[in-house]
Every structure is written in structure tokens, then in C-alpha cells.
Design a protein that fits this description.
F-box_dom; 19 strands; disordered N terminus; F-box only protein 22-like; 2 domains; Monooxygenase; eight-stranded mixed β-sheet; 13 helices; 390 residues; single chain; alpha+beta
Length: 390
């Protein structure tokens, strides 16, 4: 029985026994709809009231995050992740409420200058601007936070146990998709020196939020004059609380807030995760770690958090100076060590120009270690972390 498409035949629904069941037995309809990808599920919801109500209930059960990833040279005049998302978003089983995207800068030509945009027709602009195309691929209600970094760490789509890959060069990217999850609040933020204020930080859940557990933060251009003070203002209140904060410095960033800052100015984007179900842990792979055995021993410390593997994501934020440079030209050392220890947790991340994080476990009222804002900022290190969403 095929339920894809906009509607089934009225005669079929009205005259057959199967049609009677599909028109009247919600338990059967709901069970069938659990096997239908979300895009088709939304189309099916327009058939009748029963199907709409069943579709809504199915959507509420889809609370496990997922990710789409891509790597390798694209045969098209666009980044390889764009083509993958255009095809694979048709197959996912959740309605994205928030999307975290990371890509390398190769073949990701953005941003356009204002003059360049004015010279294009609207259709051509959307087709050529990768950020606009990403937004068009996702639901209009989805909050988007995106970054461009020097290198990308991905796990192949949909296969948590697949070996994660460190792409220090070449095209690679991923889109981490979050549905609405009971007991979990996700808020995006995008600050520059013009928009950073206590009220804006409170709205993002960064301060005066007793339920805050994890912050992913990515700063850009903060090496410029005033950037250090800006970043310290963001990190200082977080370093004093029982909160896991991880991330790093990236080349560029984008979000739904396109008017935040002017081209070339410094700022930060990220996500806050609040709720009693969330658990987080991170370890710092120090710059002196230079053997696979030492890397594995460091990452092994994450086991102390006893974080469940189900609905958990691993994040790796490494310095561009690490990778094969730290391990006698051996590639994929740290990602492989992570997979050896956590066999069913996907790993995503990037190679950037600075790292944010420390050795920390956030679980109930227990904290592995504490530090100040300066102690959260590093270079030539790797921050490896786990975030569990219940």
C-alpha cells in the first residue's frame, strides 16, 4: 500500500475495506505514517482531518536529532553539502526546528558584495548564494546557525557507527538537525559589538537561566581590536556557572539574523541548550599530545560522565595546527580514537583558529573542573565533547 503523494483516490477510500480502515481507524493510519518521511507526511496531512491528526501525533514522536553530511569534490558549481541536502532532506524523519551547519570554505563562495547582489535577478541570486540556498532547503520556521571553517569533521549520514573523517583539506560539510524535543529548549544567538547586551544575552538563555546546560559558541574576526574584550564579555558569566561551553574561532558565520553586523566586523554565533534531560562533557587534548595512545587516553576521560549513547552527539573542535601535523603525518588520529571509545556516537566538528572549552562534566550538580574566561580559550589543542539530549 503506497501512501506517498498528496492524496489517495477518493473511490479507493470510499469503496474498499482498506479505504474504510484508512478513513476511520486512527491506530492503523498512525502506525503506517511512522514509516513515511516527514516531507511526505506533511503532504498526507492535507487529505482529511483523521490523517492530519495522526500526522501531528507522529511528528510529536520524532524527537531524535539527525544529521546530513557530505565530502568529496562536487561536480556542480556549488558546495557538495548543498547537493546532498537537496536530495536527502526528502528522506528524513523529523521536522527541523534548528539547524547547525558547518562547511569548509572551498567552493562556498559567500558573501556577495552589495553591488554584486544588486546586479543579479532575484532567482539568480538565490541560486548562486549558498547561504540563501541553504535557507530555502530548510523550513522557513527553522532557526539556522552556520559556520565556515578551514576543515571539517564528519560522520557519514545516518550511520552513527561509521568511522568519522577528519577533512583537513577539500570539500566537506554537515547539517545537524534538531526537532522539537520535550524538556529541551534550544535557542540560537548571533552577537556583534553593536548587538551584545545583557538583555540580548538573557533572551538567548546565556545568563539568568538556571536550566542552561550546554553552549556551543563560534567566534569570528575576534583577533581584531576589541575582539578579545567582546569574547571575554560572553565567556565570563558562563565560566562562573555549572555550564558546558565548547566551540572555537571560525572564518565566517551566518544565521537568520542577517542584519547583526557589517561585513568584516567581529562577532559570535551559537546555540544554547537548556533542560533537565541534557548532559554534557568535554576534555581538552593538549598541544603536547602527539601520539595515538596519548590521544586515546585523553578522550577516554569522557567515559567518567557515563553519558548514554542514544540521542547523543560528539563534537570535535581542533586547531588547524593539529591533525596530521601533531601525529607525524598520520591522519584521522583523534577521530579514530573517539570511535574506538564511543562506537555508536556520531562525531562532527571543524578545524579552526582557536578553541573554546576545558575538561568539564556537567551532570546534575557535579562539575569535573572549573575555570575562568581565559582558561576556556586555547590554541594548538582539540576540544572533544559529548552532548546528550535525553
Amino acid at each position: 500500500m503506497k501512501m506517498e503523494g498528496v492524496a489517495a483516490s477518493p473511490n479507493f477510500l470510499g469503496e474498499s475495506k482498506a479505504g474504510y480502515v484508512l478513513n476511520n481507524v486512527a491506530e492503523v493510519v498512525e502506525r503506517i505514517l511512522t514509516f513515511v518521511p516527514t516531507k511526505n507526511l506533511l503532504r498526507i496531512a492535507s487529505v482529511c482531518r483523521l490523517w492530519r491528526n495522526c500526522a501531528r501525533r507522529v511528528l510529536r514522536t520524532q524527537q531524535r536529532l539527525t544529521w546530513l553530511s557530505a565530502s568529496g569534490s562536487s561536480i556542480y558549481e556549488e558546495h557538495v553539502l548543498l547537493r546532498t541536502m537537496a536530495e536527502d532532506l526528502e528522506k528524513i524523519y523529523l521536522l527541523p526546528q534548528t539547524a547547525l551547519l558547518m562547511v569548509d570554505g572551498e567552493n562556498f563562495s559567500w558573501p556577495f558584495s552589495y553591488r554584486h547582489k544588486k546586479a543579479r535577478k532575484c532567482e539568480d541570486e538565490v541560486e548562486s548564494d549558498p547561504v540563501e540556498k541553504l535557507r530555502c532547503l530548510l523550513p522557513s520556521t527553522c532557526d539556522v546557525v552556520g559556520i565556515v571553517a578551514s576543515g571539517i569533521v564528519v560522520t557519514p549520514s545516518g550511520l552513527p557507527s561509521s568511522p568519522p573523517e577528519e577533512h583537513e583539506d577539500g570539500e566537506a560539510g554537515f547539517s545537524l538537525l534538531f526537532p522539537a524535543m520535550d524538556g529541551v529548549t534550544i535557542r540560537p544567538f548571533h552577537f556583534c559589538k553593536k548587538s551584545l547586551s545583557e538583555s540580548a544575552m538573557e533572551e538567548a538563555g546565556l545568563i539568568n537561566n538556571s536550566y542552561l546546560k550546554v553552549v556551543l559558541m563560534f567566534d569570528y574576526e575576534t583577533w581584531k581590536a576589541g575582539g578579545g574584550r567582546f569574547l571575554k564579555k560572553l565567556l565570563e558569566p558562563l565560566s562562573q556557572n555549572n555550564v558546558l561551553i565548547v566551540g572555537g574561532q571560525v572564518e565566517r558565520a551566518f544565521s537568520n539574523n542577517t542584519t547583526c553586523c557589517s561585513l568584516g566586523s567581529f562577532g559570535a554565533v551559537g546555540l544554547t541548550f537548556s533542560g533537565s534531560k541534557i548532559q554534557g562533557a568535554s576534555v581538552l587534548v593538549d598541544q603536547d599530545v602527539s601520539s595515538p595512545q596519548a590521544a586515546e587516553a585523553t578522550i577516554q576521560r569522557l567515559k567518567a560522565a557515563n553519558i548514554p549513547e542514544r540521542n547523543t552527539m560528539g563534537f570535535m573542535f581542533a586547531c588547524v595546527g593539529r591533525g596530521h601535523n601533531s601525529y607525524n603525518n598520520q591522519c584521522n588520529v583523534e577521530a579514530s580514537a573517539f570511535r574506538k571509545i564511543f562506537s555508536n556516537i556520531p562525531l562532527l566538528g571543524f578545524f579552526g583558529n582557536g578553541e573554546i572549552g576545558c575538561d568539564r562534566i556537567v551532570k546534575e550538580n557535579y562539575t569535573l573542573s572549573e575555570t575562568d574566561a581565559d582558561g576556556l580559550q586555547h590554541s594548538f589543542t582539540t576540544v572533544m565533547s559529548l552532548v546528550h539530549f535525553g
